[in-house]
Write a structure and sequence with these properties.
Length: 914
């Protein structure tokens, strides 16, 4: 097709300018910006192929040009080549992560690809304030809601976008299409007319007006509009989707008026064009699955069909099935929800949609959907089996068993039904019935892997390990590289504490499937049992980078990061995972907690804010944020965050409790009681509520409230030491030390803790019973010899009481087991200093080498230099660094003393007066 003269002239003059320029002495180079300008010019004129060529030329000159990447992506979106556009936009984001407008284009790309979940995630992470065109942002928000079938909300955002920019044609058309869905015909007509008035030559506006005319059976009007559209579309050098829609609609408008011969011209044109080959493309996609089993190529082929016809029902369903098979359940649900949930949808697609919802851990949605489907298909065994599976996931076992029995009643020879029933019985601890059903499943299908798994599990539960091993051995003999059989063999060996065999079997699994989560996780546990922490970190690095949302791996990683060195490793692993998975939330939450552990609350806050941008309803993130704000003494902001949590999770009592505690701090006792009562209504017998009543009673001298709170706690948890401790505290307040000790002894008989031991010590001292003060600590120490934290705390108490010899024995014995524990080293160095032991400096330096940025350790080493070595210069240098970082009063006193002893009295006085 010919390009209009105006385009030709523009291109001609630009080309002529470039040609003439080339003839001059200093030949100017064509810049990437020149190519981008041409690409945009071609784009405006609809010459997409030419636009792409210029975009590619620009990228050859400047591969990282944001303008070139976004222009190319915009052209590709016009051509519905969303996959290629997506790759370009992702590259642009990698170059400029903070560019919010690029994220907006990526959102639109994902919407065009029907990747609603991905689109939503990207959009939630956009900072609205940084968007150049707010109307564009609001329109995209409307598009997201429209795609999620939230039509009323979508229309609200389209109206906002129109209010922000009256010329925004996409916003006007959004209002029109929302009005059509809501059957608001007045608005439909008003905004359709407004769209055409606003942009008389806009293809989308004209096509929409034609579509509305067709719906209203105004075929003559539709033909007139579409004729204008065709004139406009003649400028396009390829058959675009819009052009296909225009020709298709025009053909139908002509048929409706009886103009059959004219309509044939257009229908023949479509038959010879790419969109006319939809059925052929669909059949080709099906062949790729049935004959070649190539899911990836089939997926591309089905997506090509959707580029020609986005509402092609069978292709949407097949894409849902393919994504289900590939394990991308979120994407599968997006495709299937469009056409698999209606009354006239194929039953097979409904079953896959139900299974997808179960896989996405939405059993309630699945149960409701399956139940509605059963009402129409009461004799379908698969539906009852799916219902049983959904109830099994919810752990509603009697309902699961009942539904699966119904499935078996309708189809007695289905091994999978018996397998699910066996699993339900096994979870319900009905081992004999589980064995019976598993054997039945294997009798129907001897090669059924799920049935073998359940049978082995049933034998293990029935304490018949030899039978379980026999089946597993036979399975491995038959299939030596079967991952499931190898994993079960490893698990049995692990249970029997044959760790060597377990490791061997798991490594065989990894040789076949390097990213196998089960094998990697169990090998991490085995590595830790062997004290091979470095190997465990290597495996966790692999797991977290592959599966960033795996909570078990993240939990182990967090527990392992107990020292500065391991915390640093964990942070490196998390940051690596975050760079590969920019939308993973769990890793970011763990990173925030690691930053808190490093005492970097400001960094933690930045990470948490990133999470809330990705998911503005993430409860864990806001709870963590409130905790950080409290640590930063930003009480007002913490309070606001807890109030936000109340609105996000109104049935969660924890936010009310935290608000109650903050109210107590502010001496707002009536508010504290109100919050505690609200929490109690949400959760019966909630002890934190009664603790608030207790605290309020203590602070307001309301003895009746205190006694009632203690009684309630005792009634709720009679085997807990808590109510005895509270009674002891009440006696301490009244200076009745003997009664307090009696209650503490009762608490001690329930549970021995370091907190309780401390209370014993202080209570005995208050009661002037110094000999008994450390008895509780002594007993606790003997019972918990391997608990390093408790032993350090005990030694610290002994040190404060000048019991240096015993403290030294405890700390030195612990150091043999934990030579790199910085707290242990630091406390022992201080003890050596107190007893004038020359090991003090050497021990403190070991701690400093492990944690060089710790103000507490810098203080210890600096103070030893001053007190023991008289090296004031080095001592002051370290003490100053420690004080500047922490502003700690004790470190300040050490520094003042160091200045004074070294003769630097002016600096000592200046520091005193700070």
């Amino acid at each position: 097709m010919e390009i209009k003269n105006i385009l030709f002239l523009k291109v001609f003059f630009i080309s002529l300018f470039l040609l003439l320029s080339a003839c001059e002495k200093e030949e100017p180079k064509v810049s990437a910006a020149d190519h981008i300008d041409l690409a945009r010019l071609y784009l405006e004129q609809g010459a997409f192929k030419a636009s792409i060529i210029e975009g590619k030329n620009a990228l050859q000159l400047e591969p990282n040009s944001i303008e070139a990447l976004t222009t190319m992506a915009t052209v590709l979106l016009k051509l519905n080549a969303a996959d290629t556009a997506s790759n370009l936009i992702k590259k642009a984001i990698a170059i400029d992560k903070e560019n919010q407008d690029i994220k907006l284009i990526l959102t639109k790309t994902y919407l065009l690809q029907s990747k609603l979940f991905s689109a939503r995630n990207i959009f939630n992470g956009i900072n609205e304030a940084s968007i150049k065109n707010i109307s564009n942002y609001q329109t995209t928000h409307g598009d997201l809601l429209f795609a999620s079938n939230k039509i009323n909300d979508a229309k609200t955002w389209y109206l906002k976008a129109h209010a922000s920019d009256k010329s925004n044609i996409d916003a006007i058309l959004g209002i029109a299409k929302s009005s059509l869905q809501l059957k608001q015909l007045d608005d439909l007509n008003t905004y359709t007319m407004l769209a055409v008035e606003t942009a008389p030559t806009d293809i989308n506006a004209l096509l929409w007006q034609a579509r509305v005319s067709m719906l209203q059976k105004q075929y003559v009007k539709a033909e007139s509009i579409l004729s204008k559209v065709m004139i406009e579309l003649e400028r396009y050098d390829i058959l675009t989707l819009n052009k296909y829609f225009a020709i298709d609609m025009l053909s139908k408008a002509l048929v409706a008026q009886g103009k059959i011969e004219e309509s044939l011209i257009y229908s023949n044109y479509l038959a010879q064009s790419k969109p006319g080959q939809i059925q052929k493309s669909f059949e080709n996609a099906l062949n790729l699955i049935s004959k070649e089993g190539n899911l990836n190529e089939a997926e591309k082929a089905f997506q090509e069909v959707l580029q020609q016809s986005p509402t092609h029902k069978s292709s949407n369903i097949m894409l849902g099935v393919i994504n289900y098979q590939k394990g991308d359940y979120t994407q599968a649900e997006d495709y299937l929800s469009k056409f698999a949930s209606g009354e006239n949808s194929p039953l097979r697609s409904k079953k896959i949609l139900a299974l997808t919802k179960i896989k996405l851990n939405k059993p309630d949605e699945a149960i409701k959907f399956i139940t509605n489907t059963i009402n129409v298909n009461k004799e379908d065994a698969d539906l009852y089996a799916l219902l049983g599976y959904a109830y099994l996931v919810k752990r509603e076992l009697p309902k699961s068993i009942s539904a699966l029995k119904n499935a078996i009643r309708l189809s007695k020879d289905n091994a999978l039904y018996y397998t699910h029933l066996a699993k339900s019985y096994l979870v319900n601890k009905q081992t004999s019935l589980a064995l019976e059903m598993a054997k039945k499943a294997i009798s129907i299908n001897p090669n059924s892997e799920p049935a073998k798994q359940i049978l082995i599990g049933s034998y293990i539960s029935n304490k018949e390990p030899n039978k379980a091993k026999k089946i597993t051995s036979a399975w491995l003999k038959q299939s030596p590289k079967n991952i499931t059989a190898l994993s079960i063999s490893a698990a049995i060996a692990q249970q029997e504490r044959n760790f060597k065999k377990a490791t061997t079997q798991y490594l065989k699994v990894l040789a076949i499937s390097p990213y196998n989560l089960l094998a990697n996780m169990n090998l991490v546990k085995l590595d830790l049992m062997k004290n091979n922490q470095n190997k465990a970190f290597e495996r966790l690095d692999l797991i977290v980078n592959k599966y960033p949302e795996n909570t078990a791996a993240l939990s182990i990683l967090f527990k392992l990061s107990s020292t500065p060195e391991t915390t640093k490793k964990a942070i490196e692993i998390i940051n690596s995972a975050n760079s590969k998975h920019p939308f993973a939330i769990s890793t970011r939450l763990v990173l925030a907690q690691l930053y808190l552990r490093k005492n970097w609350p400001d960094k933690a806050l930045i990470v948490i804010d990133d999470v809330t941008k990705l998911d503005n309803k993430n409860i864990k993130a806001y709870f963590l944020k409130a905790k950080v704000l409290l640590s930063l003494k930003q009480i007002s902001k913490a309070k606001d965050t807890y109030k936000l949590l109340v609105s996000l999770a109104p049935k969660n009592p924890s936010s009310h409790i935290e608000l109650g505690r903050l109210a107590i701090q502010a001496k707002q006792y009536d508010s504290a009681i109100e919050y505690a009562n609200t929490a109690l209504k949400l959760r019966n017998n909630f002890i934190p509520s009664h603790l608030i009543f207790y605290t309020v009673g203590i602070e307001t001298n309301n003895k009746a409230m205190v006694i009632k709170a203690i009684k309630s706690i005792k009634d709720i948890s009679p085997n807990s030491p808590l109510h005895y401790e509270l009674e002891a505290d009440l006696h301490l307040k009244n200076k009745d030390y003997k009664a307090a000790i009696d209650k503490l002894l009762l608490a001690w008989s329930k549970k021995q803790t370091s907190q309780l031991a401390n209370k014993f010590k202080s209570t005995y001292l208050l009661n002037d019973q110094k000999d008994l003060a450390f008895d509780a600590w002594d007993e606790l120490s003997k019972q918990n010899k391997s608990n390093v934290k408790l032993q350090i705390l005990y030694a610290f108490n002994l040190q404060k009481a000048n019991k240096f010899k015993k403290a030294k024995i405890i700390l030195e014995s612990q150091l043999k087991h934990y030579p790199k524990n910085v707290i242990l080293l630091n406390n022992l160095a201080n003890l050596y200093l107190d007893t004038n032991n020359r090991k003090a400096l050497k021990t403190a330096k070991k701690a400093l080498a492990i944690h060089p940025d710790s103000p507490a350790i810098q203080d210890t080493v600096g103070w030893i230099y001053v007190k023991q070595n008289k090296n004031y210069k080095k001592g002051i240098e370290l003490l100053k660094k420690a004080y500047d970082t922490s502003l700690d009063e004790e470190i300040k006193e050490h520094l003042i003393t160091a200045f004074t002893l070294s003769g630097r009295t002016k600096e000592a006085d200046a520091l005193k007066n700070q």
